């Protein structure tokens, strides 16, 4: 049974030690309060402030040394806690990618951990499809160029910082959609600033579109033609660059319309 740290209990050296003990002794990821990171930061700041304001005051050297050692131990606890949770999250993503099960409990993930889980799962899924699926189909492994770009650098992040609404993580599908922009001749950051008209003209000349209907809400993203698309709501219909539309369709975020004008 998952046990969250009592919300009324402030973070202390003892509670951090207990949190780590539970994480070490149990196989499943343990639940933490949503405010855990902020509580830890506030605690570290308080400890550091005590050290700074006690310099030159009536504060025994023994007490000063005790505080220094405590801060050092707190940092060690936090590092070990993070690495243990990180390992469990990666295993969760691996299990999800391999089994395609929907029964994995992600409710215990903190917001930032949810991003890690979905990002790792997305990378594993894309490479499993590009390598294993192709080999089993007697084909050479083939990782699409935009997928590699997305995995390595999360290129083409969505233009705005729209909050995640639980549909997908910024930098996963959005990166895959927009990473194709690197294939456009002259689309390096420097060229984009110097010659935007030429870039847009060249991109539009080679543009093939496909009309899709969105199955889930989608935040803004930069297409391979360097144009910002979205945001879109469920049931919205839009004409998108073929490469972007194909990624959304493959990820189950949209479906092609019969009257699409793509080639």
What does this structure look like?
By secondary structure, the protein is mainly alpha-helical. It folds into two domains: 13-95; 155-256, Ribosomal Protein L9, domain 1, CATH 3.40.5.50. The protein is 52% helix and 7% strand. The chain is built from nine helices and five strands. Strands 4-1-5 form a three-stranded antiparallel beta sheet. A two-stranded antiparallel ribbon has the order 2-3. Helix 1 packs parallel to helix 3 (61-99), helix 2 (36-54) packs antiparallel against helix 3 (61-99) and helix 3 runs parallel beside helix 4 (111-136). The radius of gyration is 24 Å and the shape is elongated. Mean pLDDT is 75; it is low at 1-9 and 146-205.
Task: Map the helices and strands.
Blueprint: H1 13-25, H2 36-54, H3 61-99, H4 111-136, H5 145-153, H6 173-178, H7 189-194, H8 196-205, E1 209-214, E2 221-222, E3 228-229, E4 237-241, H9 242-250, E5 254-256
Antiparallel strand pairs: 1-4, 1-5, 2-3
Brief summary of the model shown:
By secondary structure, the protein is mainly alpha-helical.
- CATH topology category name of the largest domain: Ribosomal Protein L9, domain 1
Apparent shape: elongated
Largest sheet: 3 strands, antiparallel
Computed CA radius of gyration, to the nearest angstrom: 24 Å
Counting structural domains, the number is 2
- The sequence of SSEs as H and E is HHHHHHHHEEEEHE
Q: Residue ranges: pLDDT <50 for 5 or more in a row?
A: 1-9, 146-205
- Compute the number of helices: 9
């Amino acid at each position: 049974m998952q046990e969250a740290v009592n919300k009324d209990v402030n973070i202390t050296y003892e509670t951090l030690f207990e949190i780590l003990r539970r994480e070490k002794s149990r196989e499943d990821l343990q639940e933490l309060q949503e405010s855990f990171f902020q509580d830890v930061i506030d605690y570290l700041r308080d400890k550091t402030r005590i050290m700074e304001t006690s310099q030159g005051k009536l504060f025994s050297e023994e007490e000063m040394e005790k505080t220094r050692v405590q801060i050092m131990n707190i940092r060690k606890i936090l590092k070990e806690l993070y690495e243990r949770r990180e390992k469990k999250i990666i295993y969760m993503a691996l299990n999800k990618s391999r089994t395609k099960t929907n029964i994995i409990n992600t409710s215990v993930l903190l917001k930032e951990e949810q991003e890690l889980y979905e990002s790792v799962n997305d990378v594993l899924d894309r490479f499993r499809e590009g390598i294993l699926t192709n080999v089993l189909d007697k084909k050479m492994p083939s990782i699409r160029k935009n997928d590699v770009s997305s995995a390595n650098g999360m290129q083409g992040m969505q233009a705005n910082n729209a909050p995640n609404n639980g549909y997908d993580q910024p930098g996963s599908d959005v990166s895959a959609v927009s990473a194709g922009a690197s294939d456009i001749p002259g689309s390096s950051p420097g060229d984009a600033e110097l010659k935007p008209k030429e870039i847009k003209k060249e991109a539009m000349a080679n543009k093939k579109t496909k009309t899709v209907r969105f199955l889930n809400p989608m935040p803004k993203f930069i297409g391979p033609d360097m144009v910002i698309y979205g945001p879109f709501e469920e049931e919205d219909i839009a004409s998108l660059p073929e490469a972007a539309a194909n990624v959304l369709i493959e990820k189950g975020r949209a479906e092609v319309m019969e009257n699409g004008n793509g080639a």
